Amino acid sequence: NEPYKYSYGATERFLKSITVQTLSRKNLHEKIDPLSIEEVLDSCTDYMKSRQWHKAEAGYRQVLELEPDHPLALTRLTPVLLQSRQFAEAQRLARRYVDNHAADPNAWRLLGNTCLTSRAFAEAEAAYRKALELDGTLADHFCLGCALQNQHRHTEAINELMIVMSARPANSQEASLQKNAKQLLSQMAHA
After folding, report:
1. Helices 172-190 and 154-166: angle between axes, nearest 10 degrees
2. Could you give the angle at which helices 138-150 and 154-166 cross, rounded to 10 degrees?
3. Are the CB atoms for 103 and 127 separated by under 8 Å?
4. What is the pLDDT of residue 127?
5. What percent of the chain shows pLDDT beyond 70?
6. What local confidence, expressed as pLDDT, does residue 24 receive?
7. What is the pLDDT of residues 124-165, one digit of tens each?
8. How far, in Å, are 11, 44, 74, 142, 169 from residue 173 at the CA level?
9. Mean pLDDT, range 6-18, rounded to an integer
10. Does 29 or 138 have the greater pLDDT score?
11. pTM metric for this prediction
């Protein structure tokens, strides 16, 4: 505070710093703070692990309200919606994810899983074929076999399931897929 500062025509001002918060500690703008997205996603993951589907859904929806095409929120909200039997909404989100990430095989897998769960077998078939075209896995062959079997296209389903059976399992998930494929083939043989 030197007196010479007034020699240059400065005007003296006083600043006051205040903090505003609500009693509930909620954001005043009705939306989450953009800087807290990662924290919200982490909380939602914890809610999913503890099977608190409604809380997870609410968190993911808040993220999507702020960023409508957030990839992690889209991919994680879709299974939550399937769990709560909101099939149409889950398909809509999976399609939106595919629209934004058409070159990602995981986007097509998500759409295929969503369609398979909601019994839209023809759409599931198309999605799994696209995933196989981009970067296929044994799970894609198995799920495609399931979609074909549910459309009563048994010869094609058997071909897909035989691909699963003939592969050498690289992990326990693939070994489980082979067990399930064997069981499905057995069911088709007895039908």
Report:
1. 150
2. 160
3. no
4. 96
5. 84
6. 62
7. 999 999 999 999 899 999 999 999 999 999 999 999 999 999
8. 72, 25, 24, 12, 8
9. 67
10. 138
11. 0.77
* Residue that has been written with the tokens 């968190």 in this structure: 59
Could you give the C-alpha distances from 93 to 64, 73, 85, 124, in angstroms and in order? Answer: 10, 10, 14, 15
CA distance linking residue 122 with residue 137, whole number of Å? 19
User: In whole angstroms, what is the distance from residue 147 CA to residue 27 CA?
Assistant: 45
Residues 6+ apart with CB under 8 A from 94: 74, 78, 107, 110, 111, 113, 114, 115
Mean pLDDT for 97-115 is 94
